[in-house]
Amino acid sequence: MLRALVFCWIALASFAALAEEGGAEPEGMVLLTVGGFVGKTNRPPFNANRDSALAKLKVGFKSAYAFDREMLLALPQGTVRATTTELGSEAVFKGPFLQDVLVAIEAAKVKTRFVASDGYSGYLLPEDIDGSDYILALEADGMPLGLNGQGPLWLMNTRKEGETVGKDNRGSHVWGLVYMHIGE
Question: What is the C-alpha to C-alpha distance for residues 117 and 139, in angstroms, rounded to an integer?
Answer without folding.
Answer: 17
